[in-house]
Design brief:
31% of the residues lie in helices and 14% in strands. With 315 residues, the chain is of the alpha/beta class. It has two domains: 114 residues, Rossmann fold (3-Layer(aba) Sandwich); 182 residues, Rossmann fold, CATH 3.40.50.720.
Length: 315
């Protein structure tokens, strides 16, 4: 049994990969380019992958390939249709990162709404020392209590964010593919118009690709902030950048990008120095506890597969 791990560095250098060794011969690579991928998987029975795109071109000559284990909940980097047609099973790792993604979402909202880093900079720069007064109250900030928090995508992460938002005193409204009478579900248009804070937690699909663009941003309050911890391609990054530059919206938080890491020509490079912009390097999913749960699920998925049980298989 040949097991190939294509990009273990995306899971962190501190993660223990040894539990998978008992299933066969393990070859691991810190990173893998798209050009390197076909050669590296050609003799594999099982591939463990995070970011490498498992396209038809990559897997078509991997004649022994039986299982692809995605070390994430989203699997838009894998050609599911081709794999299903050729008897290659795909298993993802659901629900492992709920707590930490919700935590980062709330942290982003808190920082942007409260202007924490601006107040921090006021002290750390020495301005507070010489300002001649005991407190600094600009930029003006507002309480969460009484605000409306709109959540796009209401799976495990969206629900976790909603609970905290309600605890902070926010009214929570939800846009989800299948409305649920147990929640305050509204159209995307209504959510955009009414929300003071918007966070995106839906998967990247054909329906959600480009979901938020210039037209949608025009619907938002000028005082609203928007946060994306889902997938970069869910919104139009050019439109978001221009919305910040023009003052169309009040703030932007983002942990995910259509191209990672950010290339030099990425539109967000134009807003890196804006105080109302908070960009992080796709880290929201990656607490130590979350990564440990993730790889533990991968091991469990392999064990189930080898013992004839279906677990987290994508069809």
């Amino acid at each position: 049994m040949n097991i190939v791990i294509l990009d273990y560095k995306t899971l962190g250098d501190d993660l223990d990969l040894s539990p998978v060794y008992k299933y066969g011969n393990v070859i691991k690579y810190p990173t893998t380019t798209q050009n390197e991928a076909p050669e590296r998987v050609k003799d594999a029975d099982i591939v463990i992958v995070n970011k490498v795109k498992m396209t038809k071109y990559v897997v078509e000559n991997a004649k022994n390939l039986k299982l692809i284990c995605e070390t994430a909940t989203g699997y838009d980097n894998i050609d599911i249709k081709y794999c299903n047609e050729h008897g290659i099973c795909v298993a993802n790792t659901p629900a492992y990162s709920t707590s930490c993604v919700a935590q980062v979402t709330i942290s982003m909202a808190t920082s942007l709404m409260t202007h924490l880093h601006e107040y921090r900079d006021f002290v750390h720069s020495g301005k507070y020392e010489v300002c001649g007064k005991a407190n600094q109250l600009t930029p003006v900030y507002h309480e969460f209590d009484g605000l409306t928090w709109g959540i796009i995508g209401f799976g495990n992460i969206g629900k976790a964010v909603g609970k905290v938002a309600e605890a902070l005193g926010c009214k929570v409204i939800v846009n989800k593919q299948t409305p649920d009478p147990n929640y305050n579900c509204v159209s995307l248009k209504t959510l955009l118009k009414e929300s003071d804070i918007i966070s995106i937690h839906c998967p990247l699909t054909d329906k959600t690709r480009g979901l938020i663009g210039e037209r949608e941003l025009d619907m938002m309050k000028k005082s609203a902030i928007i946060i994306n911890v889902a997938r970069g391609a869910i919104w139009d990054e050019n439109a978001l950048s221009e919305a910040i530059i023009s003052g169309k919206i009040a703030g932007l938080g983002c942990d995910v990008f259509s191209c990672e890491p950010l290339p030099k020509n990425h539109p967000f490079n134009k807003i890196l120095n804006y105080d109302n912009v908070l960009l992080t390097p796709h880290m929201a999913w990656g607490s130590f506890e979350s990564r440990t749960r993730c790889f533990s699920t991968v091991v469990s998925n392999i064990d189930a597969f080898l013992n004839g049980r279906e677990q987290n298989l994508i069809k």
